[in-house]
Amino acid sequence: MKLLVTGGCGFIGGHFIRRLLSDPAPPLQQLVNLDALTYAADPAPPAGPPPDPRYQFVQGNVLDRPLLDRLFAEHAFDAVVHFAAETHVDRSIDAPTVFIQTNILGTHQLLEAARAHWARQAGQHHAAFRFLHVSTDEVYGSLDPTAAPFTENSPLAANSPYAASKAASDLLVRAAFQTHGLPVLTARCPNNYGPRQFPEKLIPLILLNALEDKPLPLYGDGRQIRDWLHVADNVEALLTILARATPGSVYNLGGQSERTNLDLVQALCAELDRQAPRADGRPFADQITHVADRPGHDRRYALASARLREDLGWSPRHTFETGLTGTVAWYLANRPWCDAITTHRYARERLGRGP
Predict the structure, then answer these.
(1) Active-site residues: which are they?
(2) Is the dihedral of CA 135, 206, 209, 235 positive or negative?
(3) Buried (b) or exposed (e) across 328-344, using 16+ Cβ within 10 A?
(4) Is residue 46 reached through a cis peptide bond, with omega within 30 degrees of 0 on the bond before it?
(5) Would the pLDDT of 25 be above 90?
(6) Region 322-348 average pLDDT
(7) Is 0.85 topped by the overall pTM?
């Protein structure tokens, strides 16, 4: 397989590439990682050392249609996995235009380039081509605390500019299948966690602030509920969908690990108390600080993943407790990586914003 991955220097995309390249004998001939290297890019490349001859990095933007056409012509990809997106809700509230450009127009350009390439293929290459679009649970909007989790048939009801831009891209992907027959797949993911996550996200933000004796900011009352999935389980779900799903399918990747933000932060603090206790003996939970809630803050997200489990046999391998323990241990052991991210890639004042 020749694979194009967009946004492969991001959190989930990087783990996806590392998973593919770590297999000693995957059905992988070539993997091209197209990434714009925005502020949230991981400074550690997802391949090597030593360099893997199957891997090629291309710095570029999914908005660049001539570049996309050139890559498809040069490499004759068998599949596309589309991670590239602006993802942070706070930033979308402050500056939505880049989210519209990257998440909507960029997806459109990638779909058009993929469709032109697919139309040129014949026989097995035409039939086997796939376009996997990686989306989010936020497209469904907010869920009542006692309501059943969202299914793939739940209406899209995005409430933030970020979520709206992802919902629009989902619909463009659907239209490419319904109108042109492009063999697309859509995966809607919950909150991911694990090593190498950019520190504007909740778990690494809280961990790094705690270790630096800073306030641990929580929006509002902290009772917002999120479903959590370890990034390694997310990657395995994506690989399963790519390999086995029927074109046009949409799958929810539910983690069945719902937690309030307050419960999550308290669990993080307890894990830090165990793995890296403060010299003065104080619990890290003393640093929790409630801040003003953000506009349009969705109360709960939860995804039903019965379709994915029943159709394709996927289920997560990590429990939330073991996954969190390993995640905290990784950040404690990899402070230089965290310092590189916060020093060179990130506006430090953002670290004080609430998750």
Answers:
(1) 137-138, 162
(2) negative
(3) bebbeeeeebbeebbee
(4) no
(5) no
(6) 82
(7) yes
